[in-house]
Design a protein that fits this description.
- This protein is mainly beta and about 575 residues long.
- The protein has a domain at about 1-55.
- About 10% of the residues lie in helices and about 35% in strands.
- The protein contains three helices and 41 strands.
- The chain starts with a helix and ends with a strand.
Length: about 575
């Protein structure tokens, strides 16, 4: 019986194994068949899509021949230790508001990355304070310098006086000089005699509360002035995209007559000069009630974003939502405001009078409490801060070099008392670490502080080793000192002692042969033509009274306003 069972098992087991093998084989075959279409379809789809879609975006960012690649790399600042006045951004208390609502972990919807300064504006001319996001200089175009002389070729009509304390053009007061594209010029309310001309227009804010529009060639009015009725300090700016938009602050909100008004930062449509938006200077997001806007902002063309600082201690990021229809001469904006508030850990004082510098995605500004800070423009998180030691109204300037990016900045004598030190510095823009500093003893009186009020002038070309500072009320209570410092060491290469100080920013330009020259104006009403390699005076003329404003240069024409209640057009010969 057992033998029969063994025989049966010997027959059944192989059969069972055979059945199992057949089932496994069929299952394997099914899986193979299921996989086969995927492996077959993939090569037929991929080759047809790859040549048409993939190569188009891939080569563009990498080997592009254009001088400034569109996707600029994001800067990540190195975390810094607390030393030499420098602290990490983590020690700064701050808040971010969307409108009036406080938000946490703010992040830009559109990533802002500014490019090189030469790519800031698509317009021909000088379009903002010191003309770009590095605050490099206020000149445009070419000129041949032969005689090394200056000649006044026109003066504007007299600027009205709304307050005897505020005549003419004040600080910073730099004019804009814009060659509008023909299709934009023809839709604006420019007088007929200038509409068909290849107009280069001067736009000048005044302490008379008017914004003037002048022909660079003749000094004649090109259209009606814009009247806000109260002194405008600072400098206005136009939209760098070539859109007919003008941005301006105001410096004073009460007159000797007793007339008062509300603080505002204004945006104007230059098609018809109507005010299309304003930011109130008094804001519940900040405790500071002084709401002036002396700072001159910047606009990021790629993201349609305005960056503006206020003396109320707020930094504004404004998504403009611009709609410009040139065919139908229509312009509108629908702004969305984001505000950055912070606490100064060094002095507690707020108020931003200088104008911001932007390097890629990093923003820099200083304040009335003497704090210079670096801010991530996309997260509004502070990266580092530096204690400059006193009120700082002068705008910084930035230079990018093979060794890195560096800020040049200087303080004034205000909080220190009737005498103190103006300290000018070179600072690593990524880490906040000081490279060098140089001090100048300055005086202060009841009206005017000493120190630095003008933007440092960063040399290029034949003066690329120099940075020039204009020190106020040093040597004597009315004296000044123009100094050219070695960029690497901070040591004086030359110094020019001035009998009369000047708040005006020295403005360098180049002749067609590459030789650098410099325009400088003082509080006595003198305009100097200077050799910036040596400090030698080449020529002087009079613009009659104190010049607080900074000049702008277009081709061979210098434009500046003075306390003489005039704007001057000066030819470089």
């Amino acid at each position: 019986m057992q033998n029969n069972r063994k025989k049966v098992l010997m027959l059944i087991v192989p059969l069972i194994l055979l059945v199992i093998l057949i089932i496994l084989y069929r299952q394997f075959a099914i899986e193979e068949n299921n996989n086969t279409p995927i492996t077959v379809v993939t090569p037929t789809v991929e080759p047809t899509l790859e040549p048409t879609l993939s190569p188009t975006p891939e080569p563009t960012p990498e080997p592009t021949p254009t001088p400034e690649p569109t996707p600029t790399p994001i800067v990540t600042p190195v975390p810094v230790a607390d030393k030499a006045g420098n602290v990490s951004g983590e020690k700064i208390k701050y808040k971010v508001f969307s409108g009036t609502t406080q938000v946490t972990d703010y992040q830009s919807q559109d990533k802002i990355i500014f490019g090189a300064p030469e790519n800031y504006s698509s317009l021909k001319g000088v379009t903002t304070l010191r003309n770009d996001n590095y605050r490099s200089g206020a000149e445009y175009g070419t000129r041949s310098v032969v005689e090394k002389k200056l000649e006044i070729v026109w003066t504007s009509d007299e600027i009205r006086l709304v307050d005897p304390n505020w005549p003419g053009v004040g600080w910073t007061g730099q004019p804009l000089i814009v060659n509008w594209p023909e299709n934009v010029r023809k839709i604006m309310n420019i007088y007929p005699e200038f509409k068909e001309k290849d107009l280069v227009e001067v736009i000048q804010v005044t302490l008379g509360g008017e914004i003037l529009f002048l022909d660079l060639e003749t000094g004649k009015s090109t259209r009606p002035s814009i009247d806000i009725g109260f002194p405008i300090k600072g400098s206005c700016f136009v939209d760098p995209r070539g859109y007919p938009i003008l941005y301006t602050g105001m410096g004073i909100n009460s007159l000797q007559s007793g007339k008062t008004t509300s603080w505002k930062f204004r945006i104007f449509n230059l098609i018809d000069q109507t005010e299309i938006f304003s930011i109130p200077g008094n804001d519940p997001s900040t405790s500071r009630t002084w709401g002036a806007f002396d700072s001159t902002g910047l606009v990021d063309a790629e993201t349609d974003t305005l960056i503006q600082c206020g003396e109320n201690g707020l930094l504004y990021k404004v998504k403009l939502n611009t709609n410009f229809d040139i065919e139908n001469a229509h312009l509108s904006i629908d702004p969305e405001l984001t505000k950055y508030w912070y606490s100064n850990p060094f002095t507690g004082r707020l108020g931003i009078e200088n104008s911001p510098v932007i390097y890629r995605d990093l923003l820099y500004f200083a304040d009335n409490g003497g704090m210079l800070q670096c801010l991530d423009i996309n997260t509004l998180k502070p990266k580092w801060a530096f204690n400059l030691g006193d009120d700082t109204d002068a705008s910084p300037a930035l230079e990018e070099t093979p060794d890195g990016a560096f800020l040049y900045v200087g303080s004034q004598v205000d909080l220190q008392g009737v005498t103190g030190n103006c300290v000018v510095r070179k600072i690593n823009a990524l880490t906040g670490e000081q490279v060098w500093e140089k001090s100048y003893k300055c005086y202060k009186d009841s009206v005017i502080n000493g120190g630095l009020f003008s933007t440092p002038t960063v040399g290029t070309g034949d003066i690329e080793d120099l940075v020039i500072f204009n020190i106020v009320k040093t040597g004597t209570e009315w004296g000044g000192r123009l100094v050219a410092l070695d960029k690497n060491t901070g040591e004086e290469v030359w110094a020019k002692v001035l009998a009369q100080y000047g708040w005006s920013t020295p403005t360098v330009f180049k002749s067609d042969d590459g030789t650098s020259y410099m325009i400088f104006c003082d509080s006595y009403g003198k305009m100097y033509l200077i050799d910036p390699k040596t400090g030698e005076t080449l020529d002087t003329i009079s613009v009659e009274r104190n010049v607080e404003a900074s000049p702008a240069i277009y081709n061979d024409m210098v434009v500046v306003g003075s306390y003489a209640r005039k704007v001057f057009g000066v030819r470089i010969k």
